[in-house]
Amino acid sequence: MARLKISYVCQSCGAASSRWTGRCEACGEWNSIVEEMASSGVGGGPKAAVSSGRAVELVALSGASEDAIRTPSGNGELDRVLGGGFVLGSAILVGGDPGIGKSTLLLQAAAALARAGKRVIYISGEEAVGQVRLRAARLGVADAAVELASETHVETILATLDTGPAPDLVIIDSIQTCWTDRVDSAPGTVTQVRTSAQAFTRFAKKSGAALVLVGHVTKDGQIAGPRVVEHMVDAVLYFEGDTSLTYRILRGVKNRYGATDEIGVFEMMGAGLREVPNPSALFLDQRDSGAAGSAVFAGVEGTRPVLVEIQALVAPSPLGTPRRAVVGWDSSRLSMVLAVLETRCGVRIGANDIYLNVAGGLKVSEPAADLAVAAALISSLTNSPLPPDAVYFGEIGLSGGVRPVVHGNLRIREAAKLGFASVHTARLGSGEAADGVTVSEYGALAELVGRIAASGTGQTVGDES
Predict the structure, then answer these.
(1) Long-range contacts made by residues 223-227, C-beta under 8 angstroms, separation at least 24?
(2) Do the domain assignments include residue 448?
(3) Strand locations in 175-256 (E)
(4) What pLDDT digit, counting tens, does each position of 114-145 carry?
(5) I need a surface site. Which of 85, 245, 282, 414 has the fewest CB within 10 A?
């Protein structure tokens, strides 16, 4: 009989220790240490494994190699994030908030592949077969030859997958519900999730099937369970969006077979998720172009240019400590832009309440949005509506200079395609093309501030708030 030993494992980062503590020493989380029974037999860890003594063949670094064989999913936005489709033998982790649409997206992709003649198996650990059938009927994919089962036992699932011909796609929804006999702990714990993911990943590599694992996310947006699961798989996708909005964004944060930071945009409809081939038009559809504090930012997500609206509101603060509310952008980056405006440009803005929002639910992380944020702030402060046909992008340095960013030509082309007539950015390189739009170049942020303030109808940038 396998000997059992007790270990204390952090449910946030997966770190193990020999004793219980109130705070994890690895990640700093409080009350995340849970006692688990780990078997020292099969699956108990490297120390318990018996070496077979078999040597592997060493080969040269150079030589012929096969390209990754891809199977298009039938969904253009999903294929964009994956890099062209599902790679045979790969493991993919999909995370997202509850109810965001993970199961809907994967069921639609499974149905499209099944209609193309592929063998697709969908294992649901959270819903009964009847519930999945009801969703398939609502989505209009009930006629697809998707093989369905409701099971959480890993060994039973693997035995089922070994019957019949090798599947082309296997979907496990979700990995937190699965459990294995190899470890003595509850489903959803770090040990169970890690061991189950290892077993499914080995099956994918051995059989050549594309494997999709669905993972829940915690309140801070991270995939629940150990972060080591992200290192086991070949791609990690996050499904983002506000449930109060119809937009959904699928973002790739890791991809061994394609570009990272790629996004796919969907719209949640009554009959499922609809692809949005032109997200810029969607994000700018409800824009109030005549209001002060609104600026259009030309961003790049992966290889796709995306135009979004940056909204800013600068209001006098009745408090001793002004408010700073930021949605969709880095709050520390906002503090830096405000400091540069105060120190380098003479704009007295720090005593005001500042509200900043990226419209449409998109999260912007690149520093190229600095110039658009600064333009929106000055526009709101001086009550100066910006030109409705202008876009802004550029990085602001601590010295007050405006620095160029990558993919400037791509951003300009996207602006021209959507009918924008002017672009405000840093000094462009010789290789950048204007594509028929007027390009206003700035070497310092004070130049843009003076240009916006000159057309204002409210207070000047030098007035006390």
Answers:
(1) 223/93, 223/95, 224/176, 224/188, 225/11, 225/14, 225/175, 225/176, 225/188, 225/189, 225/190, 225/193, 225/194, 226/13, 226/14, 226/190, 226/193, 226/194, 227/13, 227/14
(2) yes
(3) 210-216, 235-240, 247-255
(4) 999 999 999 999 999 999 999 999 999 999 99
(5) 245
Question: Is the residue at 205 inside a domain?
Answer: yes
Based on the domain organization, do 269 and 348 belong to the same domain? Answer: no
pLDDT in tens, 287-346: 877 889 999 999 998 888 999 999 999 999 998 899 999 999 999 999 999 999 999 999
How far is residue 73's CA from residue 2's CA, in Å, rounded to a whole number?
A: 43
Q: Is residue 19 part of a domain?
A: yes
Is residue 393 included in any domain, yes or no?
yes
Same domain, 313 and 434: yes
Contact predicate 395/367, CB 8 Å: yes
Q: What letter does residue 97 receive in the DSSP assignment?
A: -
C-alpha to C-alpha distance for 286 and 34, rounded to whole angstroms: 48
Shared domain for 332 and 415, answered yes or no, is yes
Are residues 415 and 307 in contact, defined by beta-carbon separation less than 8 angstroms?
yes
